[in-house]
Design brief:
Shape: globular
Order of helices and strands: HEEEEEEEHHEEHEEEEEHHHEEEH
Structural class: alpha+beta
Helix content: 25-40%
Distance between the termini: 50 Å
Strand content: 15-25%
Strand order of the largest sheet: 9-8-12-11-10-13-14
Number of domains: 3
Number of strands: 17
Length: 440
């Protein structure tokens, strides 16, 4: 229908990307005209009304991404009557088709024999905050699904080879304290370090988080890995609550952000200034407005260093940063939908249960290793190309299932770029522990 097309476009752009470009002219690239006419009225025959519950033909196990395997009833379409209502999960089989009714959906047989499916109940589910093993599994998969869907949006909307084809990116969901809740199986070194990045922003900005703000960071002191890994962080607000209820973040490897060599990973750099643009706590979006001029100036700033250059592919940087913002916005929308269904207290309670479950899994694993090791101590040493040692000693307390990782004996910081900041060290430890657990 005729209406304010510009307003509608901007609303949809805001919903998809989380910001608008106020100084841009909107170009109409394609116009489609649709004609609607009335066809001849067809009188449909009514089918027999139901006199009881729908008959179940058999029970089968069906796998759903966010729930896992569910025992689902199978119905034959020929046995269904008008008014029969089927609650998902369920399978409806016809002569030439099979219809899957997913969990939280209902299907109703109309008087004409059609199957009308209602997607989602739209009502808040009654789930308590106490720990339930089945709900723990459901929420664990729901949180992971949010991170996975963020990754799909990022891959689809980015334009760089690094992100779109090499998949050098990661997405994750964090609690109101900045602690990691769930992540998709992306780049291991990103995932452990991103928690440090989120918590650094909380420490620096304190209560200066507002809806419509997006923060950019890549500095090693702020939880960064190497400078081309740009992390975009967005706080999640919910219905008038002043403080963020969650955080979402995406980290992507940008092909170039300036520096003394193309690719922004010089092998012989001696300082960060030689490696490209740095961001500790930079507002990429402020109040819903994309700060394009400011981020452009920051990406070109390395050119002020003698022998260095600003970013060599600014358009790609800007496009990929917008893609990361869009990925975060997808995460925000999904988190809000989850809260709408279960309630904030339940969602945050199961966030805590998931973190506690992960902690228990690690403690159990450490107890098993400590019990199998008489001295309760493990140690190893490796050497860099220049002979610098990396030494690690792990002392396990079998009573508590805790461990102290001691890097005493490791060589000092080298005069070059082969140094690991705290975030990378923590990330390596977390990933090793995750691999050693060997289960969800």
């Amino acid at each position: 229908r005729h209406g304010d097309f510009l307003k509608t476009f901007l609303q949809r752009y805001q919903s998809e990307f989380g910001f608008t470009l106020s100084d841009r002219t909107i170009m109409v690239d394609d116009i489609r005209v649709r004609g609607i006419g009335q066809s001849l009225v067809k009188i449909e025959e009514s089918i027999e009304k139901a006199s009881g519950p729908p008959p179940v033909d058999t029970i089968t196990s069906v796998y759903f991404d966010n729930v896992g395997y569910c025992d689902s009833p199978v119905y034959l379409m020929s046995s269904l009557r008008a008014g029969h209502q089927i609650t998902g999960p369920a399978v409806v089989m016809d002569e030439l088709s099979t219809i899957l009714v997913e969990p939280d959906c209902t299907a109703t047989v109309t008087t004409s024999g059609d199957l009308l499916i209602h997607v989602g109940s739209g009502q808040r589910r009654v789930v308590g905050t106490h720990l339930d093993a089945i709900q723990l599994s459901i929420f664990s998969h729901r949180f992971m699904s949010i991170a996975e869907q963020m990754g799909r949006v990022l891959q689809r909307t980015a334009i760089s080879t690094n992100i779109k084809e090499r998949l050098d990116f990661s997405c994750a969901l964090f609690g109101p304290d900045g602690g990691l809740v769930s992540n998709a199986p992306h780049i291991p070194v990103h995932l452990g370090a991103m928690q440090e990045t989120v918590q650094y922003q909380m420490k620096m900005l304190r209560d200066n988080f507002h809806e419509g703000d997006v923060i950019l960071s890549n500095h090693p002191k702020a939880g960064g890995s190497h400078l081309p890994d740009l992390t975009v962080i967005t706080p999640v607000f919910y219905k008038g609550i002043e403080k963020p209820v969650f955080f979402v973040a995406s980290r992507g490897h940008h092909a170039d952000i300036g520096g003394i060599t193309p690719g922004s990973m010089p092998p012989h750099s001696k300082s960060l200034r030689e490696e490209g643009a740095t961001f500790k706590s930079f507002f990429l979006v402020k109040g819903g407005k994309f700060c394009e001029q400011e981020v452009t100036e920051a990406l070109m700033a390395p050119a002020l260093v003698p022998g260095s250059s600003g970013t060599r592919n600014l358009k790609e940087n800007i496009s990929d940063l917008k893609a990361q913002i869009a990925a975060n916005q997808k995460g925000i929308n999904l988190v809000r939908e989850l809260i709408d269904v279960y309630g904030l207290d339940v969602v945050q309670a199961y966030m805590g249960h998931i973190q506690q479950n992960a902690e228990l899994a690690v403690r159990d694993m450490l107890r098993d290793i400590g019990t199998a090791t008489p001295s309760h101590q493990l140690s190893a040493v490796e050497y860099l190309d220049d002979g610098s040692p990396i030494q690690l000693t792990v002392d396990i307390d079998v009573n508590t299932g805790s461990a102290v990782c001691d890097f005493s004996g490791t060589g000092p910081e080298v005069w070059g770029n082969c140094n690991a900041p705290r975030a990378i060290t923590m990330s390596a430890l977390i990933y090793c522990l995750r691999c050693m657990i060997g289960r969800d």
